[in-house]
Amino acid sequence: MKSKYHRSIIVTAGLSLLSSSGLAWAHHPTGGETPSTLWQGLLSGIGHPIIGMDHLAFIVAIGLLCAFAQLRSPLVPMALVAATILGAALQWSGVNIPYVEVLVSVSVIAVGFFLFRTPKYLKTAGLAGALAAIFHGLAYGEAIIGAEPAPLGAYLLGLSLIQMVIVWLAFVAGRSAMSIGPAMLRTTRNLTAGVVGGIGLIALSTAVVA
């Protein structure tokens, strides 16, 4: 029992750290400058979802929803990537949606809330959450407006790859948490949901004040 408890603490700490490791960082690895080379574009695409606390928490939550719903299909991760690229494309095409950062924050709070829900809702919540990534894509798109086609393509490649990696890591962590027993799983899931929801609330308050 004690080993299960310790395992639960380790898993929860890992999930929480994965969710919140972007708290102290800005939203873009190049400090707001538009990437001008392939390498800069790739690094920007990889770095943007990691150092933005709201984006990272959202992606981690999607991976956890897939794990807790025992959803092994790549549909949700693929929908996540497609939705972010669609959102970025809308941003580059001149579509102006107000309060994007507020919408991003609300989406983080929503997926955090659904982590609390019973398994029968999780598959729907995971897919709906992935589609809500359009708002995150709009925010990503703002960071690379004006870039040349080469760094833009590299940015999209990096962005797509890192999101798939984060979802997969969160999925593996979630599956590991499911092996520690129902009671410990419930505690782990609720604590992680609280971390994700808390990050969403912090991001929302920051967006509203800004």
Please provide a written account of the structure.
The chain has nine helices and no strands. The chain is globular and about 50 Å long. Residues 17-26 have low confidence and may be disordered. The chain is an all-alpha fold and 210 residues long. Helix 3 (53-68) runs parallel beside helix 5 (100-114). Helices cover 76% and strands 0% of the residues.
Layout of strands and helices, then pairs:
Layout: H1 2-20, H2 38-51, H3 53-68, H4 75-92, H5 100-114, H6 122-131, H7 133-142, H8 149-177, H9 182-209
Helix pairs in contact: 1-3, 1-8, 1-9, 2-3, 2-8, 3-5, 3-6, 3-8, 3-9, 4-6, 4-7, 4-8, 5-6, 5-7, 5-9
Round the Cα radius of gyration to an integer and report it. 17 Å
Main β-sheet: number of strands, strand sense, barrel status?
A: none
Estimate the strand proportion. under 5%
**Portion of residues in helices?**
over 70%
What is the assembly state of the chains in this entry? Answer: single chain
Number of strands: 0
Give the N-terminus to C-terminus distance in angstroms.
47 Å
Which structural class should the secondary elements be placed in? mainly alpha
- Low-confidence sequence ranges: 17-26
Instruction: Compute the average pLDDT.
Output: 81
Overall geometry comes to: globular
